[in-house]
Amino acid sequence: MEEKIRVALYVQKAALQFIDAAGRTEYKLSGEAREAGFTIDPDELASIVRGHDIKGLKHYNGVEGIAQKVSVSLNEGVHESDIPIRQKIYGINRYTEKPPRTFLMFVWDALQDLTLIILMVCAVASIGVGLATEGWPKGLYDGLGIILSIFLVVMVTAISDYKQSLQFRDLDKEKKKIIIQVTRDERRQKISIYDLVVGDVVHLSIGDQVPADGILISGHSLVIDESSLSGESEPVNIDEERPFLLSGTKVQDGSGKMLVTTVGMRTEWGKLMETLNEGGQDETPLQVKLNGVATIIGKIGLTFAVITFLVLTGRFLVEKAIKHKITDWSSTDALTLINYFAVSVTIIVVAVPEGLPLAVTLSLAFAMKKLMNDRALVRHLSACETMGSANCICTDKTGTLTTNHMVVDKIWICHKITKIQSNKYEDIFQSETSREVLNIFLQAIFQNTNSEVVKDKEGKTSILGTPTESALLEFGLILGGDFDAQRRECKIIKVEPFNSVRKKMSVLVALPGGRMRAFCKGASEIVLGMCDKVIDESGETVTLSEEQVGYITDVINSFASEALRTLCLAFKDLNESSDENSIPESGYILITVVGIKDPVRPEVREAVQTCLAAGITVRMVTGDNINTAIAIAKECGILTSDGEAVEGPEFRNMSPDEMKRIIPKLQVMARSLPLDKHTLVTQLRNTFRDVVAVTGDGTNDAPALHEADIGLAMGIAGTELVGVVQEVGAVMSDNRENGQEVFNEINSREMEKINVFRGIFSSWMFIGIIVVTVAFQVIIVEFLGTFASTVPLSWQLWVLSVVIGAISMPLAVVIKFIPVKNNSPKRQYHNGYDLLPSGPDLA
Ligand SMILES: Nc1ncnc2c1ncn2[C@@H]1O[C@H](COP(=O)(O)OP(=O)(O)OP(=O)(O)O)[C@@H](O)[C@H]1O
Ligand SMILES: [Ca+2]
Question: Is ipTM strictly over 0.85?
Answer without folding.
Answer: yes
